[in-house]
Specification:
The chain is an alpha/beta fold and about 290 residues long. The chain has helices at about 1-10, 25-35, 70-80, 85-95, 105-120, 135-140, 155-165, 180-190, 210-220, 240-250, 250-270, and strands at about 50, 60, 125, 145-150, 175-180, 200-205, 220-230, 275-280, 285-290. Helix 9 links the parallel strand 6 and strand 7. Helix 1 runs antiparallel to helix 2 (about 25-35), helix 4 runs antiparallel to helix 7 and helix 5 runs parallel beside helix 6 (about 135-140). The longest helix has 18 residues, at about 250-270. The chain is globular.
């Protein structure tokens, strides 16, 4: 199985600079590593897989589980049967978007729904909306008089999901602001009554600002409130050695975002203001509970 996967990888010519993905030397190196039980290709980094029967095209697999079949099993047996119809409709509407992969993963969404209910969230904020899957999920979860401040730089993407949000009868809970997030957060903090007023925050935006968002959210969240950061395992690449990242990660942007995520993970681990939990859902989420 491993050899056949490697042969497919060698034949793939569209992933990195239109050159073979792995040299024979690299293939032998990876075979050796796999033989030693290091699952960098088919385990922890299973996101780097050749998808499709022709093996002519490589697509990122966002799930972090050992294989895509197990991930699909979880979705089909536990997530999709409980997914409200408006969320399914929005997920389907997003599927045709060229950047559909950045949408909140349904399994991560299911956990966010539970967290919202566990803390009885009523006043929330979302940084990074895209087409609105996690936003609609939150709007469906919080009470009818609950409020969500939703911030995104691109209203056009939000408008893909807006008709579905309206039909679901929850638009009145949402205050969408088309803007960079930091100015909005700073504006909120100018009013001291906003300090400690939020029950929940979800962040899925520019990774380079995650730490800046965190500092502001620590003032806006109440003690006991939660903030969830998305993409904190970055397709599994945070666990890869630098030499493999150079071979596998396509583009300087993705490499730079990986560095930001790794810095954030170290930062959160040392932040005594929060209790943290990293969950391998979707592309990895980190749940932070403010404790003081």
């Amino acid at each position: 199985m491993v050899d056949s996967w490697l042969v497919g990888a060698v034949s793939c010519s569209s992933f990195i600079n239109k050159e073979p993905l792995f040299s024979l030397e690299k293939c032998n190196l990876y075979r050796s590593r796999l033989a030693l039980g290091i699952s960098e290709l088919l385990g922890d980094a299973s996101c780097w897989r050749v998808m499709g029967e022709s093996a002519k095209k490589t697509t990122l697999y966002k799930g972090l589980l050992k294989n895509e079949e197990l991930y699909q099993y979880i979705l089909e047996t536990s997530v999709y049967p409980r997914e409200p119809e408006p969320l399914k409709e929005l997920r389907d509407a997003t599927a045709a978007h060229p950047r559909a992969i950045i949408a909140t993963a349904p399994d991560a969404g299911q956990s966010i729904d539970m967290l919202l209910k566990l803390v009885n969230a009523k006043k929330t904020i979302e940084i990074g909306v895209f087409t609105g899957y996690s936003l609609l999920l939150t709007a469906l979860s919080i009470p009818d008089d609950g409020k969500i401040i939703a911030i995104d730089v691109d209203r056009k993407n939000y408008e893909i999901g807006l008709p579905i949000i309206k039909r679901a009868g929850v638009e009145h809970k949402i205050n969408f602001i088309e803007s960079q997030a930091l100015p909005v957060l700073d504006k909120l903090l100018e009013d001291h009554e906003n300090e400690g007023s939020l029950d929940f925050a979800f962040v899925d935006a520019d990774k380079g600002n995650y730490k800046n968002y965190h500092e502001r959210l620590m003032k806006l969240l109440k003690v006991g409130g939660l903030v969830v950061y998305d993409n904190t395992l970055w397709y599994g690449t945070v666990a890869l050695p630098e030499d493999l990242v150079e071979e596998l990660v396509d583009g300087e942007y993705k490499k730079e975002m990986r560095k930001h995520i790794m810095e954030l993970n170290k930062y959160l681990a040392t932040d005594s203001r929060v209790q943290i939990c990293v969950a391998p859902l979707g592309d990895g989420i980190t749940i932070c509970r403010r404790i003081y």
